Protein 1
Amino acid sequence: AFSCSLSPMRGPLLAAAGGAMGGAGGPLARTIRAKLTAALQPTHLEVRDDSPRHGGPPGAETHFGVLVVSGRFAGLPLLQRHRLVHEALRAELAGPLHALQVIARTPQQWQSDPRAPPAPPCLGGSKRERRRG
């Protein structure tokens, strides 16, 4: 079971701008980066591993945030953009990936505001815990 730490520390940012791949990350981070690059040809891609903030064992790679800037998003509503990201990562979301924060922007949107919002706070728990009503 995972529980969240309230520490303000953020996960490592594994960024890739254009075709350059910066930061190695773990195997799941590399897979996420490779699949999003292949599916969406991003002009900017950031993969953030938030797993340490969620109380899992070291190297768990269960919680990620991605910022994807792609021309493929032009003219698409936010929901459709997220669906493209989720489709590219379908196998990972069905398996080891417990949570994914997605920021999906067009190159024009990124150019006008090249900042990523902060990671959302951890609300605790995991899929395996029962929620109290």
Protein 2
Amino acid sequence: QVVFALNQTLLQQESLRAGSFQIPYTTEDLIKHYNCGDLSSIIFNHDTSQVPNFINATLPAHERITAQEIDSYFRQELIYKRNERMGRRVKDLLEEYPDKSFFFAFGAGHFMGNNTLIDVLRKEGYEIEHTPAGQAI
């Protein structure tokens, strides 16, 4: 699986350099949608938007299965579990210091797709409020 993932990543990078593959959004698009609080946009609506995508229709069946296993592993380990850990840390701080005020700032990756940091904290009963760019806190 590691060799397969490495080969697929290198193929994607070669395609990017050759111009035969393009990322459907720019860094500026990410910043604009993030600043506007538009976390449900098409850009932020994919669980795997922050990890390589190994699944594609041109793969032979046995490689497609490997790609799906790797995709599932990345989604679980790099996205869901990470957000669970981060959410637990926030919750622990809030409970340990109930009389203190906190300001938390997180990267966009914590808000993409399903099982976001917001989802984790809402499941714990917390109310989350987005503060748009430029708004005084």
